Amino acid sequence: MHYKAVSSKASLVNLFWDQFLFLWQLIKSRFLFWLGLISFVILMLKLMPNSAIVPLFFIGVDFNAVKSGQVILPVFWFVYFVMPLLIVLSSFKQLWQVRGMQLRGLRYSPLSFAAVNVGLMGLITIIYVVLTEGIMTLMTDFSWLRNFKLLQFHGLPALLVLFIINFSGIFLLLIIQTTIGRFNAPLGIIIPFSLCIITIYTTWKYNPFNSLMLLRVNNNNFLLLLATTLLMLTVYLITDRYSEPDY
User: Fold this and answer.
1) Which of 109, 123, 129, 228 is the most exposed, having the fewest neighbouring CB atoms within 10 Å of its CB?
2) Residue (of 94, 92, 61) closest to 77 by Cα position
3) Residues 234-244 pLDDT 10s
């Protein structure tokens, strides 16, 4: 099928807003439930004595523990990074099943579909990270935040870098989920979950998700995470541009 692309910025903005409203109806219940749950957990953790919320969620597992076979599952880390996957599930596939024929009739190109999907994934990730890490920051003692160090950054700049890292990691997981899910919805869930599990129990230094753990993050795996995110974004846009969606 050939498309006469609708390419104006105004049209894409309208498409984005329309798609967001439909997507919100699909994920609203899950989003409010999971966000409410994690917010409740953060508030409960605040009641624990001498608890710094940020490291409880993002400390992860160091390589020495993996090598010695003494890994304790970092429950908070795992839950935090798979929760956006549970919020989205196969919503993007459902979205296009509902809206695909109508939007193709309006002459939107497949590339427009893909670009709007990417924007929606980015928006979901930003909202999730801002809300959750904002609550964590408010619930963490200022003295700990002031001394927080990440890579070569301290204090508030380190928190900003943490936001960028976590945004990139969640965005990458959602891209993987959506790319695979458009062909096989169950695998779209299973593979990102498996990648998180593999990250916990392996020491492969070229795993980009190592940067999501405070005990493992360094400049190299941070750059690798950014590069992998850009690569998977390109793969997603190409597959969505040149293959016919299964509506």
Assistant:
1) 123
2) 61
3) 999 888 665 55
Q: Report the chain's C-alpha Rg in angstroms.
A: 19
Distance CA 174, CA 172 (A): 5
Q: Which two tokens stand for residue 32?
A: 């409010």
Query: For position 2, what pLDDT does the model report?
Result: 43
CA-based torsion, 225, 231, 237, 243: positive or negative? negative
| Rounded CA separation 95/221 (Å) | 34
Predicted local confidence at residue 26, as pLDDT: 92
Question: Does residue 150 register a pLDDT over 50?
Answer: yes
Helix-helix angle 155-181:91-105, to 10 degrees: 70
Q: Which two tokens stand for residue 49?
A: 């004595």
H/E run at residue 153: strand 153-154
- Give percent of the chain above pLDDT 90: 54
pTM equals 0.89
Q: What is the pLDDT of residue 11?
A: 77
First to last CA, the chain: 14
Q: Whole-angstrom Cα distance, residue 114 to residue 58?
A: 31
* Phi, psi dihedrals of residue 148, rounded to the nearest 5°: -65, 130
Greatest Cα pair distance, the chain, in angstroms, is: 63
In angstroms, the CA 106 to CA 102 distance is 6
